[in-house]
Request: fold
Amino acid sequence: MGIGRAHAKAILLGEHAVVYGTAALAVPIPQLSATASAGWSADTPDTAGGSGAGGDLSFAMTGSLSRAMVTQASDGLRRLAAAFRTRMGVPDGSRLDVIVDGTIPPGRGLGSSAATSRAVVLALANLFERDLADSAVFDLVQTAENMAHGRASGVDAVAVGAAAPLLFRAGQVRELAIGCDTLLIVADSGTAGSTREAVELLRAGFGRQGTQERFLRRAGELIDTAVAALAAGRPQELGAQLTDYHELLRTAGLSTERIDAMVKAALDAGSLGAKITGGGLGGCMIALTRPEHARNVTVHLHEAGAVQTWVVPLRRFTDHV
Reply:
């Protein structure tokens, strides 16, 4: 039996702009995880699921990972498995069962598909006793991510294995310097978003002259200011960049009425800043909050429609998965 684990993530700043070369800031969420176990199947070739390259695998998902997600992710995971065999020199023909258990709600912009893919890659590597470089894990996860989302930026593939908040730009990654003691409250709106639809909506808007340039220029300004504020320990300035980035995404049509209401509720309750996180058109929002205000902000978020919340310290964590 091979075991692999990964965790959720939230985008602090940089959604959509990162695909065009701008930086993105991402935060690991260790409370939400995906664990994959891979083992030899007892099925015969006639009963095992799938066919062709990578088709000699069967997948099952438990926990919050629904049957719908199995169907949505299976093609990407099978392609990932085929790529793993090719890259690692594992011969075809061995029948495998892969079971994924997780607590990351799908369709919420928290990296559920990337975390699932990373967990499966690490489980297969563990099963076949292969040592994978970080670059190899990234490439394999991207194989599935590009099927799930189209042109994936790669930030999710990195962030679901990160041990600290990070800055991602054009495939290069570095840990963020953190000079302030703050919390992120991640709140689920209860509605799944759609990265593909959001990307298409934004691309259609970019068809108007000057729109793309203005969006990317403003996104870059907010991100650069946020990085400096985070490092210098200026949480109020950092929060302002989050709120302004939400307005950028809202103006582009990527927010929803409920998430807008949750952002307002968080700000009214004392948050330093709040915004939608992830692809948009649903999913989650985040609120930057001082520890002493966390309870009040959480209560107000639930009153505004949040179905569940998680509190994430903005710092390095030690359990690197």
Notes: Residues 277 and 294 are 18 Å apart (CA to CA). The radius of gyration is 20 Å. The longest strand covers residues 24-40. The beta strands are 2-13, 24-40, 57-63, 96-102, 166-169, 172-175, 183-188, 273-277, 284-289, 308-313.
